[in-house]
């Protein structure tokens, strides 16, 4: 450029920055100043950089994404073949790919990122950043094999450049992808490879602690995915200790930790979001173990933290955390017999999904919402609606565990409505689909439970005992308390039906103790009716009256709550089977702010143990929805 051009260029840049930083910013004049630069026909580097700046400003301050895209495309075309121009070239590629993804054009984003990865092999920072971004793009499109291959390339390239911290991030990210694919053995192998590297090869204590949180989150989710509630306790405790260390007042800020050198400028999630995520997996564990009160308490804390973070900056990942927490507080409500709060929180979850950008969360979570509505409808004995909701969930989801769970509850609907042929068909289908798959201990135990319940309804008591003992064996091995209580109360009813009052009492007593600890009102209702009959058989009138009064109280509470919830406008959600759900409800009953559930909250990233429950009249059968951990991690790989 000539000296006069140079002076004009600097002046226009200065003016554009002045307008951008004014109070309030004058973005129109800022853009006009930058566009004026093109009238001087600047050199390619200047032209490319200016197009990038325009794209950045338009994306940050306006909704004119088409114009932003045009500028970024021009910047990419101009800079792609310019040497020694890495920051502009790769920043442009990254931002352009990000914009394509926002417009659901990942097919355009991928070739740009692949080309940039090819050109960036000499630059460790950009090469790794672009590999992570392309892996995330493939993972978002559920192309997990391609995402895994890219992360493996990252492991190799960081090995060559001795970037140990980055190598650990690539390994853990690959384990996360394997977990989404349910490749259990591969997940374990990669975690076993990453663990020693984190423990012995990471010298920076702050980076090490962040990696430990990432590692323990994956390890905990891995165990919970397998239903290993007892096995996971040590890892969960270590995770909680690590997050306490990171959240301590004397811990440096993320900016201080991750801004030292280019190969250490990557993090999975900021510490405030990690804090919420640790609550999430803790809730998951509590719910699987059958501690609803504890799950509610941790959910309340997590939702409060989410609201605090939203008030500072409303990141999309916060809505992801919120929706999963709401899914699980809803499960708690249903187990505890509080349907009126459950349906309001289902409506709230629906509204959170609808309010997300491009209804992204609705696309991801619609099957879960249908499943929750199916459970709610089943708890209110609206079996036709429950069947349709479960069927919609099964048709819409690609998650094998969610499909299995919906099928198990659909089997209970067929059992309750005496549709024997449909029940036989669905049990055979479940058996066939899962005979060659390794499922969660909780889900497989639930399958045996449903078979035991079916055998009980057919008065095949010997067969029922066989299935239920298998369920108890699985539940006791991993402290799945709700599965245990449901199985014990049904086994007690089996023994009562064959006149063995002693064994029936031996089963129902621990069942009631566990049910009151959870608390599970359906098991308590069922168990109190069994106790009433047992005490009458044993000629114990005082205990019989006590059991009868308990049964009446449980029953009246459930009936009153059902009458209440069916009058809410949110109740009409049970009629939503396709398309977008109806717009936000007008009811003012739920007075808490969005994201804060009434009277304490709790939830879990991996749902509860079993479709469970039933009464001596063989008609009250509750259920619990399963939400898998790890799917949280699909939403954001790196920030």
From TrEMBL:
Please give the family membership noted in the entry.
Belongs to the SCC4/mau-2 family.
**One cellular-component annotation, GO:** nucleoplasm
Assembly, per entry: Component of the cohesin loading complex.
Summary of the function given for this chain in its UniProt record? Required for association of the cohesin complex with chromatin during interphase. Plays a role in sister chromatid cohesion and normal progression through prometaphase.
- Keywords of this entry: Cell cycle, Cell division, Chromosome partition, Mitosis, Nucleus, Repeat, TPR repeat
Q: Where is the composition biased (Low complexity)?
A: 599-608
Name recorded for this polypeptide: MAU2 chromatid cohesion factor homolog
What does the UniProt entry say about where the protein is found? Nucleus, Nucleoplasm
**Quick one: a GO biological-process term for this protein?**
mitotic sister chromatid cohesion
Top-rank lineage group of the source organism:
Eukaryota
Identify the stretch(es) annotated as Disordered: 597-624
Instruction: Indicate the principal place this protein occupies in or around the cell.
Output: nucleus
Q: Does the keyword Transmembrane helix apply?
A: no
Q: Which Pfam families match?
A: Cohesin_load
